[in-house]
Amino acid sequence: MKNKFIIIFFYIFFIEPSAAETNKLESKIFKSLRCIVCQGQSIAESNSDFAQTIKIVVRDKIDQGDNEKEIYEFLAEKYGEWIIYKPKFNYINSLLWFSPYIVLVFGGLLIFKYLKRRKQ
Amino acid sequence: MLSNLGNILLFGSIFITLSIIYFAYQNIKERKFLIEKNLVYLSFFQITFIITSFLLLIFAFVFSDFSLLAVYQNSHTAKPIFYKIAGVWGNHEGSLLLWVNIMVIFSFLFFLFNYKLNKIYSLYTLLVQNILILGFLVFLISNSNPFFKILPIPSEGLGLNPILQDPALAIHPPLLYLGFVGSSIYFSAAMAAILSNSNGKNFASSIKVWVLISWSFQSLGIIVGSIWAYYELGWGGFWFWDPVENASLIPWFCMTSLVHSVLVLEKRNYLYNWVLILSIITFISSVTGTFLVRSGILNSVHTFANDPARGMYILIFLSLMIFFSFVIFFKRKINDNFYLEPISKETFILSNNWFMMFYLATVFIGTIYPIFTQVLYDTKISVGPPFYNSVIAPIIIPFLIMMAIGPRISWIKQKYNDFKSLIFILILSCAINFLIFTFLKSYNLLSNLIIISSLFLILHSLKDFIINSKTKSYYNLPSFLSHTGFGILMLFIILNHNFSKEYDLNIKVGETKKIDNIEIKFKDLKIEKRENYNAIIGDFNILDLNKNFQKNLNPEIRIYNNPQTLTFESAIKTNLQQDLYLTMSNIDGSDFYNVKFQIKPFMIWIWFAALLTASGGLLRIFLKK
Amino acid sequence: MKISFPKIISISLVAFSLIVFFLALNIEKRYSTEKIVGKSVDNFEIKFLNNDEVFKKQDLTNDKYYLINIWASWCLPCRKEHPILMTLKKENKLKIIGINFKDKKLNANNFLGELGNPYDFSLSDKDGTKSILFGVYGIPESILIDKKHKIIRKFIGPLNVKDFEDILQLVNEK
Question: How far apart are CA B267 and CA C14, in angstroms?
Fold first, then answer.
């Protein structure tokens, strides 16, 4: 009985949603692209002409079998990294991705230091 | 006439502010035992002058006095009176006057409450706060004067941007300002505490209520802002990680830290330095946010008229403020000495601060990083929702768990022996998660964990509350409301995130389209003339083939004349389970309309939970032990 | 004041941020598509405006410069830059490709009939998707390609006299 419970438990945890649904992928990509002619809107949100065109292009690319990453790379090449909402992980952006965690670790160590003082 | 009167009031305020600074300084220097009555009188004059000038501006907007540039640019005679008033703070100049008003009101009340208790400390607070007020008054008069005249007087105004003509947005700025401008008072108090060598406990108990007030209003302001974004911007989302939203969130993280750690200082006289730092950075981050928004160096949905001179002024002011607060803070040589037990309320509160600082760092770095890459590497990057979600979401889990256990832990030291109920609640949370999971189908590991931990928080708080209420002590009610509210908020945000459905399609009048199990029928299109705009109204019929429900939705495209703008009004049908959300927009040179149809589960619960969280703060202000 | 490690770190971080903010105040914030300059043209296949044949990347020859001009009859600034395109037509080291953007065939032909046809190849991009290959942002836009099919300049907005002179200079180099 117990074992069964554990199996069910892990089964739930490690299942990933079936990303195959094109519709989901499509709207995920639309949300991750900036409408560069608008003020702070994504392609999914924008009503602009530009957004309409990008939507068609993204749909075509998905139909051609391109994956998410390839689509982002294609658009970044044409419009610069400005168009992608999730910054690439590269040399320039490394601090962006790391520094929040540096703060987290540093803060933890600081609290730990105060806890340890007691024992001295 | 009005313009002259307004200018006299503003110059009068500057004069009074200068006098307050002078007399406060004299008083401190001479170390008199009694505060001279003239300081109280001067403060009273100051608040009268500044409020009158604000009322005068409201008057000018209500009666459409277009001899003032600010009124001409932001108002129109055909506008409903409610939005004429809201127009006062819907622009840069007026909002800055509101800003100064709040600083003065807070200064006045703080002085009134404290000057009898601790003389030197309240004099220093008054001094510092008035230096800040002076800075903003000079800014107001020198390049953002709301009483600026234009000649010849125009007969009609340009009107207010229609997307701002909305009840939620009308109250959003005052709420938010009460929050982050209000934080100026404990910035000043922190400076004063250092300068007057004031005792930590006294400092904590004098600022506590102000921290609570600003936290509550900041929370309400943020909530109202996102409610507005939800139904007015027509994107179906409620949080976009837009730079302006981030600018309001950063001070909120500071305030949340402060609300908690100020208790430690008050009760245990620990963390004095840390509370001082938090008090200082709350206001500094508020001004930084204002700088980022008003200078226009960030690309955002909120656009104020951008003027580099304004950006320059705020930046210089900010730099000076940071410089002097650093100098004053580092002058303080006292090092806090304290010991923490691993299981004690102090440690849990400190861990709250720890997570808050992590969120703050993430949001702050994400917001300003694009500026850095552009200046240093000449590369433009965008930091958007995918970044924040992926960095912040995993760290929500331990935060929620700590938040559940913390409130019941006692001060100083406790032997924790409540493992039985802990494990019981954990298993119960997992079981409920399992039910949700089988009922609503799959979501990923991270969502599972967040749902479990938020359920854990909700159940744990409920249990604590029931135990507490047996002793008829309701002192913990506010923290119960806020903590439970936050747990519910996280729960429904994750559920909403996982089970939202979005359809984007192009459709003609008379067509029916079927996606998944949903049939969208575009029945009709009408044109109607309304008070100050024309509306194109779509008539849509949504049929769910699975659950067999049918709903009519009528989104609009509105064409405003003054100023010439198109807005897209979403049609929303709300019930306890979900919102149906539909917007349409025209496609140039084609008969097709772009339709975005979304099913958003539990929206109403998200608003409810957020308000519950904020209500805890408000309740705490009034609830005495 | 005693100098300590946290002090130095915090002060220098804050000072650095403030300096960056100062510099950022004077930076051009508008979007520019210069990222595409220097890259080779992607493969493309675009239909002609007036027949069903397609124009491909392989159809570009190696002895001429090309100016790709993206335009539409509904676009007012396009009207403004038209005389410059007409003058550029006379330059024999340069061929002009016109991509008609999200337009109706009839309107496009009327436009060319009225103001003259500067294009050596007149292509049509009805849904606007082909122009994405050239990083189109808002029309009119013009892209200058050298003999190796590399993008060497991109002009956003109508061409003016200065752009005209730049093009002539670039085309006549060497």
Answer: 32
Give the closest of C1, C20, C104 to B375, CB-based.
C20
Contacts of A87 in chain B (CB under 8 A): 369, 381-383, 387
Q: Using CB atoms, list chains with 3+ pairs below 8 Å to chain B.
A: A, C
B589–C104 C-beta distance less than 8 A: yes
Contact B395 A104 (CB under 8 A): yes
Say if residues B166 and B222 touch (Cβ distance below 8 Å). no
Min Cα distance C25 → chain B (Å) is 6
Reading the block at residue A15, the tokens are 């299942």
DSSP string of C117-143?
Answer: ---SEEEEESSSTGGGGGT--SSSEEE
Residue B393 lies in a domain: no
Q: Provide the domain limits for residue B134.
A: 1-165
Residues of B with Cβ-Cβ distance to A31 under 8 angstroms: 385-386
- Count of other CB atoms within 10 angstroms of residue B4: 10
HEC per residue, B544-603:
ECCCCEEEEECCEEEEECCCCEEEEECEEEECCCEEEEEEEEECCCCCCEEEEEEEEECH
Q: B341 touching A, CB under 8 A?
A: yes
Q: Note the pLDDT tens digit of each residue in B283-332.
A: 999 999 999 888 877 766 555 556 678 889 999 999 999 999 999 998 87
Residue B51 domain-assigned?
A: yes
Return the CATH number of A19-86, one of 3.40.640.10, 1.10.8.640, 2.30.29.30, 1.10.287.130: 1.10.8.640
Torsion sign (Cα): B110, B114, B118, B123: positive
**Residue ranges of domains in chain A:** 19-86, 91-120
Domain boundaries, chain C: 31-171
**Hey, which residues does B541 pair with through a beta bridge?**
B521, B552
Residue B97 maps to a domain: yes
Q: From CA B306, how far away is CA B314, in angstroms rounded?
A: 13
A82: nearest CB among C31, C39, C132: C31
**Helices within B295-408 (DSSP H only):** 308-331, 345-377, 385-405
CA of C37 vs chain A CAs: smallest distance (Å): 9
Q: Specify the CATH superfamily of domain C31-171.
A: Glutaredoxin (3.40.30.10)
Residue C29 touches partner A, C-beta closer than 8 Å = no
End of a domain among B135, B165, B195? B165
Is B358 a domain residue? no
Search chain A and give the residue with CA nearest C31: A36
Task: Return averaged pLDDT per consecutive 10 residues of chain B, 625 residues in all.
Answer: 90 95 89 75 94 95 89 84 88 92 95 85 94 95 89 82 80 93 95 91 92 96 92 82 91 96 90 93 94 78 65 93 92 73 86 95 94 88 92 94 86 75 86 81 82 93 87 82 95 91 88 87 90 88 84 90 80 90 84 89 94 94 76
Pick left, alpha or beta for residue A42 (phi over 0 → left; psi -120 to 50 → alpha; otherwise beta). Answer: beta
B242, B382, B596 member nearest A82 (Cβ): B382
C126 touches chain B (CB under 8 A): no
